[in-house]
């Protein structure tokens, strides 16, 4: 199942600072719900895990992410990621393109993501609209975690990964968002 998702969010930092933070993968990875870097392969390649709870089922994806095409002048980059469920229930591949633009004293981060789901994992979110809404919810949670880190909130210095996301809660929020339309 292939899906394309377009999202954006504001970072409470100027363009230069936001750029420096967002291309520092080890620094932003703890802001991603359920994600954790387990190995730094090189300056652009990282191995890690992502945990997602779907009802009573805990999915753990193990994989690799690589930062490509980092353009400091245009403030754009691309991140590719691939991983498989550790119990063999499916896999995910994604390509994310980031573009940063100044917006007042903050920075707008526009994200274009192509996602490919395979196996039983693809069956959890059969509707493309539902997957898009779940991605939007995850992006909002990442943006909140990142803002807290930038603004020196309580979790800013911990370096601990964000708690695993409960897909049930995310799906419930996604359904509410779809109903409002």
Number of discrete helical segments? 5
At the fourth level of CATH, the homologous superfamily is START domain
Number of domains: 1
Number of strands: 8
CATH topology: Alpha-D-Glucose-1,6-Bisphosphate, Chain A, domain 4
Q: What structural class is derived from the secondary structure elements?
A: alpha+beta
Shape: globular
Rg over alpha carbons: 16 Å
Mean pLDDT across residues? 80
Largest sheet: 8 strands, mixed
Report the end-to-end length measured between terminal Cα atoms.
24 Å
Order of helices and strands: EHHEEEEEEHHEH
Fraction of helical residues: 25-40%
Which helices and strands, and how do they pair?
Blueprint: E1 2-11, H1 15-22, H2 25-28, E2 35-42, E3 45-54, E4 57-71, E5 76-85, E6 90-103, E7 106-119, H3 120-123, H4 128-150, E8 165-166, H5 167-180
Parallel strand pairs: 3-8
Antiparallel strand pairs: 1-7, 2-3, 3-4, 4-5, 5-6, 6-7
Helix pairs in contact: 4-5
């Amino acid at each position: 199942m292939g899906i394309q998702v377009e999202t954006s969010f504001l970072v409470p930092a100027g363009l230069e600072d936001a750029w420096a933070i967002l291309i520092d993968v080890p620094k932003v990875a703890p802001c991603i719900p359920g994600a954790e870097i387990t190995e730094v392969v090189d300056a652009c390649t990282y191995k890690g895990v992502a945990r997602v709870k779907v009802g009573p089922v805990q999915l753990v994806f193990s994989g690799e992410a690589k930062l490509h095409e980092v353009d400091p002048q245009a403030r754009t980059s691309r991140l590719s990621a691939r991983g498989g469920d550790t119990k063999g229930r499916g896999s995910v591949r994604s390509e994310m393109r980031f573009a940063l633009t100044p917006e007042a004293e903050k920075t707008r981060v526009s994200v274009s993501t192509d996602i490919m789901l395979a196996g039983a994992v693809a069956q959890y979110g059969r509707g493309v609209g539902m997957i898009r809404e779940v991605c939007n919810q995850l992006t909002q949670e990442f943006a909140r975690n990142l803002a807290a880190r930038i603004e020196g909130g309580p979790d800013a210095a911990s370096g601990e990964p964000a708690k695993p996301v409960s897909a049930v809660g995310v799906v419930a929020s996604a359904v509410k968002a779809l109903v409002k339309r």
